[in-house]
Design brief:
It contains eleven helices and ten strands. The protein is an alpha/beta fold and 280 residues long. The strands form two sheets. Strands 6-7-8-3-9-10 form a six-stranded mixed beta sheet, sandwiched between helices. 39% of the residues are buried.
Amino acid sequence: MRNPFLRWFIPADTNEPFVPNAKFQHPAVASEITVDHFNLSIDGAQILKDVCVKLPANKITCIIGPSGCGKSTLLKSLNRLSDSIEGVKTSGDIRLGDQSIVNCSESDLVELRRRIGLVPQRPTPLPMSIFGNIAYGCKIHGLKGRRQLKKIVHHYLKVVGLWDEVKDRLGNPATRLSIGQQQRLCLARSLAVEPEFILADEATSALDPVSSKTIEDLFVKLKEQYSIIMVTHTLRQALRIADYVVFIYMGEVIEVGDAKQVFENPQHELTKKYLSGAIS
């Protein structure tokens, strides 16, 4: 029997075209992220060394390189999550469009992290309902109208292909979902506040092959509206979905460019060795 409380959760007009709240509309021109002579050290040990790179809009950028080379540290620096690391020091700049990320004030960090969302390596559903997980970020940013929240939850669960799987249990704890469903829920949670960039830190490494393929397909579809930066240890994955590639080795950017060019005609000897498996 259908739970009577689901009446609260299910949007009354699911056939109406979805219009994102004006509060979250994208800029007219998609922004790039520019990393400009960026350095990062932890307790005096330099992790990122004079990184200079432009990360394009509306593409899937894959950051590749050996384990421990600084890929995830660079990714988390893009929305200042690296600030939480004890002993971290930085220099240089990172900009989203014309806005400095490095010099962004503490009061502006919430908005910055709305514009640059994160899908983590392991799914991290909040300890609340499926519905509450999607609505959470919207409420933080001041959206509290029940009707609008219903539409947002319905729309983004549809976007990530979860609606038909969970529509009758939106009030259930999100932790009861499978790992693959939880990762799609985390993606929907990020999308609900309409970011410009989605950061994905090994976002499929904890998933089974079917769930991993589902997330990859979603990223390929989503790049029409969002810009995606993905750290991956799996070259096969980068070969499948990357439009643009950044190769990092020992904290330095060695080679960047169009994925086809980097994979088929790498210019740097270190890139050639990494792609051939000579270094790992």
